From TrEMBL, chain A:
Signal peptide positions (record): none
Alphabetical UniProt keywords: Amino-acid biosynthesis, Branched-chain amino acid biosynthesis, Leucine biosynthesis, Lyase
Transmembrane regions listed in the UniProt entry: none
Record protein name field: 3-isopropylmalate dehydratase
GO molecular function, one term: lyase activity
Automatic annotation (TrEMBL), chain B:
Listed Pfam families: Aconitase
Superkingdom to which the source organism belongs: Bacteria
Record keywords, A-Z: Iron, Iron-sulfur, Lyase, Metal-binding
Record-linked Gene3D superfamilies: Aconitase, domain 3
Domain Aconitase/3-isopropylmalate dehydratase large subunit alpha/beta/alpha: 27-290, 292-414
Protein name per Swiss-Prot or TrEMBL: Aconitase/3-isopropylmalate dehydratase large subunit alpha/beta/alpha domain-containing protein
GO-annotated biological processes: oxoacid metabolic process
Quaternary structure and interacting proteins, as annotated: Heterodimer of LeuC and LeuD.
MF (Gene Ontology): iron-sulfur cluster binding; lyase activity; metal ion binding
Amino acid sequence: MSPRGRAWVFGDDVSGDDGIIEFAIIRDSFGKEHDEAALRAMCFRRLRPEFPAEVRPGDIIVGGRNFAHHNHVEVSVAIRASGIAVVVVESCDAGFLRRALNAGLPVMICPGIQGAVRDGEVIGADPETGVVTLADGGTLRSKPFSPRMVEIWRAGGVIPLLEREFAQRRAQQAREEATR
Amino acid sequence: MDGTPRSVAQKIIARAAGMASVEVGDYVTVAPDYVACQELFWPGHKRNLERIGVDRIPRPDKAIMVIDHSTSAAMGSPHHETHRTLRDWCASQGIETFFGPGNGLRHLVLTERGFARPGTLIFSDEGNIASIGALGALNLPISTEVIVALIQDGTWIAVPPSARITLTGRMGFGVGARDVIQTILRDQTTNSALLQACVEFAGAGVATLSIDERETILASLFHSGAYTGVMPVDDAVIAYVEARAQGRPWQVVEADPGVPYIADLTYDLSAIAPMVTLPPDLHAAVPVGDVAGQRIDQATIGSCSGGRMEDMRLAAGLLRGRRVAPHVTLYITPGSRNVYAAAAREGLLEVFAEAGATVLAPGCTTCWGYQGVLNDNEVLISTQQFNYAGRNGARSARVHLAGAAVVAASAIEGRIADPRPMMAEGVA
């Protein structure tokens, strides 16, 4: 099932730490578990005050150039915890893409997306195929995720995926020992 | 191969992916030569290791574990527990390359101890470790995910595009590598010209720079949005690496002619002046004269952008026979134990002590406000990495960034100062 949802459209050079979230408020959290409720409450509120209250599960973020620059992982956690299914951007730094995916949030770099979507339109975006389907039925193409990236996305992040794989490996070993 | 020109990053990544070639934007899985990890995120890594149920990592020989952010675990800080649990975990995994507090920064541990070598691919937790590109090694920063690369002996990456910065000329009197990168950041940050790119430095100007200077330029490159960077491997690099490689393999990797760079820039080193970057933006560099006279409360020399031997020598050149202004605190942090020892051998620690400076144990120390915390409205000039509000304590404190010469001259004057007149005078 590929994501399809209502778009929240943002512009160019949106800061991650000092725009999408307010990192200065949570910078004492090094080494602690993420406070998802606090991150959800601050997500995008500086740019769109109504966002935390009005965002719905399955919504999609559309960003411009250099989206989420200067971002700690809490930026990705905040967006994912808000229920966002996928982020589609004109461009972003490589660090954001990987921090987000590892936290369970797929980011698609899709040149041409800027200006192609109006706020509130329903669009489709499939990280596995790289296809973005616009409200008028037109399509844009992004690099498809590698199979491993799709696995990470489907599992909800890299740690849940590794947790499952290691559990399967241990179960397999136990079965082999039992039959020996 | 197919005749398509490939960048340095493409070649190093293809080798690490076990593929003949890779294209820009491809998502590929690579096995690193090393994974460099600091201690600050260790409690989270440890929780994840336990949650996943990892008993043994497959390649303990690739793990370079360094305690550099919390050099001394001070009273009231949680870091003493991290030191204990990280040390114990490394021992349990058979990791021999654990470097405890005081060994210095990952950046310098990697270069000085022969881990970063031409053609090696190193996953790390920070973009500033691009400094190892001075030796032709490729830093790929993967943030808190470094633990994943250790668990699986690899992870996926997106092959970055490449950009080129050609350096010509030679730095003038009183100008340092930090001035070069501050000038580049001034010009190339808000335009996103280098976004996501591996920046390949080139040109005759590179050979005029010491290896320390090349590392300093690369260490702050990531503020432009660049992913990583490399310098050409010349005879100076080969001599440096041969003295430290301990028989470990390496291979010089060069870009093919005709690589399609996303940006192709030229900087004349002789046109660069001493700079100061104003708070709170990393691209807000101005010539030192524009801000000279600004009273300061604290000055700090150290970090991955200013704690190398070259920086120690620059600072000592100014501080020899002079005194730090009475209202200023000057902290100097050698970037590694090797730098500390070399500074001692050259008599620089004596110069620092007699000038009234405080020398801290090798580590990140003042750069992230772990030491030298600022009060409201205090003014700092520093060789550190960041200048945003609250970096070193109070949000109303103001952080100016500069090279070691400007910082040392400012500490002596008690105000931001151009180091050149003092340098021309020689020893006071």
